[in-house]
Amino acid sequence: MAEISLTKWLDPALDYFARESGIPVDQYAAQQGGEGIAVGLEVATDFFTKGWLNKAIQAVAGIVANSYAVWGKNVPARLRRELLALGTHEIFRIADPKPSDIIEVRRSLEDFLSAAQRGDWNAALASILRSPAEIQAMVGVTLPPGPAPTPGPVTFAPTPPAVYPTEVPGGANSVNPVPGSKYTVRQEEAPKGTKSSGRYTVTG
Q1: Beta partners for 199?
Q2: Dihedrals phi, psi of 145, to nearest 5 degrees
Q3: Domain count, the chain
Q4: Is residue 158 assigned to a domain?
Q5: What is the pLDDT of residues 30-54, one digit of tens each?
């Protein structure tokens, strides 16, 4: 039965460095490869998750890898070294978080619990899973702008009818008084036999 190994495929690439360091290539590749696999797992986890779920996945991976390396039955020595390197890397990342990690974990946990109490599972998932917009921002991809909205039909408000002064009884010689004015304009007929058609008297 072939020996199970996560890093044996790295032996040809790391053989030179193993010989220069004086460490057998299987041990050298197990250490370097285990660390590399742990970093790859972190990158994949950071790409799709955030907050407390991100740290929970790393913690579970570290605990499972270390536990299997220490207490697993009939585990090849090389695989034990690989798992120890992988698990220890993940555990140490949990034990020594960055300040920004602590803030993000606390905020995501509060948002998740609040959304779960409201029954808003979309908001709960949004607090621990990265949205497509966040992933695009991480990889530096900007989507092209959407199509411009199609203009709808143009409508015009109806023009109100024109309002003209109301004709005051009394014939064409009557003059409408200006509302609110303290003056009254009254047109009187001129005496018969004169050329004037009339005269105005202003009273106030």
Answers
A1: 188
A2: -65, 150
A3: 1
A4: no
A5: 999 999 999 999 999 999 999 999 9
* Backbone phi and psi for residue 184, each to the nearest 5 degrees, phi listed first: -120, 125
SS3 96: coil
Asked if 116 contacts 109 with a C-beta cutoff of 8 angstroms, the reply is: no
For the record, the structure tokens of 56 come out as: 């929970």
> Mean pLDDT over residues 6-28, rounded?
95
Residue 175 resides in a domain: no
> What number is the average pLDDT over the span 20-29?
95
Residue 153 domain-assigned (yes or no): no
What are the start-end ranges of the E strands in the chain?
184-188, 199-203
CA distance 173 to 168: 10
In a domain, 134, yes or no: yes
The kind and range of the H/E element at 70 are helix 51-71
The boundaries of the domain holding residue 88 are 8-139
What's the sign of the alpha-carbon dihedral 29, 30, 32, 37?
Answer: positive
The pLDDT tens digits for 158-199 are 666 666 555 555 555 555 555 555 555 555 555 555 555 555
